Amino acid sequence: MSSFKILVVEDEDAIRGMLMMVLEQAGFTPIAAADAEEAQRVLDDNLPDLILLDWMLPGISGVEWARRLKKDQTYRELPIILLTARGEEEDKVKGLEIGADDYMTKPFSPKELIARVRAVLRRSGKIQGAAQIELGDLVLDTEQHRLSIGDKQLDVSPTEFRLMQFFMTHPDKVYNRTQLLDQVWGRSVYIEERTVDVHIRRLRKILGEYGREDLVQTVRGFGYRFSLTS
Fold it and tell me: Residue range 62-70: average pLDDT?
């Protein structure tokens, strides 16, 4: 992972230092910036693979700077994870609508941070073939086709495994039934949309045996979302 450069844009020294340390321990190469202006200078000299960006920054806010980057042809495809203390649904939607690739609400664990970073890098095509996907104490092993919580292995079908793999690599984003059918079953296969509901119920029942049924959430009027936060 040492080849992946992560630009950390955070104005609070203690939090920035913690993020740098966690990323270094995970094998990444972090680059620090205290505000958007400094971060822009870094971009001009040293293009990172991903940006960890605090929502509230002095001067230009993180969300405004992210909006500008996503309009710039040079930086449009640069992955961005927004970090914020704002946990309201409309704030999350706003962050994702401006083009951010993920959204993390403070406080969060170092393990979750690294899992989110790796997931975004994987979705952006920078990491290929990662064997394990980790979110909290959930571990999905793509080589062994195993899903576990802590040291307990879950008994899931191949379809439920693929559904969890998609959810775990796309946390906190809402998908309707058609989108899930396309991503998990494939567009060439004709399956009724209610099939998604059946597998969601089965998955919740399995997760519920470990008190985790709320990981797969229903978003009324639209579809489903996988999230570590309720």
Answer: 91
